[in-house]
Amino acid sequence: xxxxxxxxxxxxxxxxxxxxxxxxxxxxxxVLARLIVARRRVVPVGRLVADxxxxxxxxxxxxxxxxxxxxxxxxxxxxxxxxxxPARLLVTDGPGYALRxxxxxxxxxxxxxxVGEAARLPPARALRRLDEALELWRGPAYADFAREExxxxxxxxxxxxxxxxxERRAEAQLALGLAAEAVPDLDAHLADHPxxxxxxxxxxxxxxxxxxQGDALAVLRRxxxxxxxxxxxxxxxxLRRLEADMLAxxxxxxxxxGPSEAAAQLWTRAAAAYDRTVAAGARARLETxxxxxxxxxxxxxxxxxxxxxxxxxxxxAAEEFGDPELTGRVIGAFDVPAIWTRGDxxxxxxxIVAAAERTLAALPPxxxxxxxxxxxxxxxxxxxxxxxxSHSSRGPRAAGLAEALARRLDDPALLAFALNGTFMxxxxxxxxxxxxxxxxxxxxxxxxxxxxVTFEVLGHLIRLxxxxxxxxxxxxxxxxxxADRLAALHExxxxxxxxxxxxxxxxxxxxxxxxxxxxYERAADGLPDAGMPGLTHGLRQLAxxxxxxxxxxxxxxxxxxxxxxVDPRADWGPYRPWITPLSALxxxxxxxALRALHALPEPPHDLLYEACCxxxxxxxLALADHAALTRVQARLLPAAAELxxxxxxxxxxGPVAGYLAAIGxxxxx
Length: 669
What we know:
Blueprint: E1 5-7, E2 13-16, E3 19-20, H1 26-37, E4 43-44, H2 45-52, H3 62-77, E5 90-93, E6 96-99, H4 107-118, H5 123-134, H6 149-175, H7 179-192, H8 197-209, H9 213-231, H10 237-248, H11 259-277, H12 283-297, H13 301-320, H14 324-332, H15 346-362, H16 373-386, H17 394-409, H18 412-424, H19 433-450, H20 453-469, H21 473-490, H22 494-509, H23 513-525, H24 533-536, H25 539-549, H26 576-586, H27 590-598, H28 609-623, H29 626-636, H30 656-668
Antiparallel strand pairs: 1-2, 2-3, 4-6, 5-6
Helix pairs in contact: 1-3, 4-5, 5-6, 6-7, 6-8, 7-8, 8-9, 8-10, 12-13, 12-14, 13-14, 13-15, 14-15, 14-16, 15-16, 16-17, 16-18, 17-18, 18-19, 19-20, 20-21, 21-22, 22-23, 23-25, 26-27, 26-28, 27-28, 28-29, 28-30, 29-30
């Protein structure tokens, strides 16, 4: 079926392959517009009636009228649909209707996508993408429904996004040395929107960079006068600082200073201003400190280590104020995306969870108005993230509550953090890679749409892992490339740790053990500097051991690895319990192997759950221990279609189906 394109950036329109589609009367267009505002969600008939007849009591036949409007729209949108066949665009769903169209079918949605993409592009490409986005506008959004309450919020949101896009376009021009070209557009922009402080700043800066220092200072004076007279506000710190920099002829604003030098100058000035203006011991300092720790953490290495060292101190200081809301904000502000399911500092995690639980208990109970819901959501998400790998039921419960709260609050950043908790608690059994792929997809979409870059990267890494588990390495490759691209643009060095390990996994899975061994050694050499001990301990040895399991084996299973591959003197870290039975078997000590096998706990609920189960299965097969085989068979069955361990994005022990076949054969005797 040929795609129908809808326009709302101006009057509401629809266009098919043969040109514009006639939408009849204003209420037909209103129904269509109301469904577009709903973004593919169902709008109940009662809601449509209330919105279409908002100012007057609806007539007795209002429901029938809506049904008539819908029928007419369906005929217009799908003229070739055979009679009595279900509609494919404007569908009936439960109590109402939904417009089920693709993400590029509505000009406003294409505009948002383009603006989100531009935020992640270098200036030259961002400028082109913003030009394409702004060309989609034909007038005010939903222009023919300017007075309708049901569209007011969407109109305001799109209008604000357009204004910001004009200003981001000017920023890209300035970054490219096109200051003169930016001046006329900013002048016109400010004529219609004189309260836009960022636009005043950009216009003054553009004039300054074209050698018009007097005009630039005059613009800043005009901005001050306009803001005071129209809004009763003094210029903000950005305008005041720019004026001071111009008078001092600071090279950081004339485009001649290099980006690193300009950034360093800005950091120094901002830090000094903060120290001058914010009193020591002020609550604001605590929240600012946590924000700094969050930024430090994503730099990796020493930054991540420093963030861990100071995080508990910030929480302790917050608790001393005796204000649970403040404490909750401080605990929950550390929303650093987490991809590895084994914590770096278990004792720190335990103390953070304890503080979060104390704070949740101290918050006033829900009041029906959502007063503390955002704080409560962040605390629950923190509990979910910090209890990763645990067998406790608290983590999954906290994750579910956090996600439900975030969806109700409709806060993208909050939802991204909550979904990180959901991901961390999605290892309660084997075979959940498809569910994790869904979480990753939503994080990618959220991050791209709302500029949450670190969570967009997290989504790509989660999908990389999930597709690895499912053996779809072509799809995993695309997400590895996307994560690397974003990491390069936004200086996120830790991303490369995971994509480098994924590269080694690809070699192992493709049947190149020699290349994989070299790649694993190189990847492991970089781990000590990454600041992630929860990932580091034992991983080199486990990865090298995994190469034994990706070689061809008999139908009876992979067999016990050679003694050198399971050397008990090596650093196996947390994986040692699953290596000990194999070490004893390789040494010919079957009684010791049996004791070690019987002592094995259930593996941690983490990314290597299936891999540990397969190590246990290998030992149980060699010992023909039916009880252990029955136990591990039940654990592995849900992952029968997966590659063991590949969901980590780091290594694999081969198809789970091979282990299950060998177990079944042994149990059948």
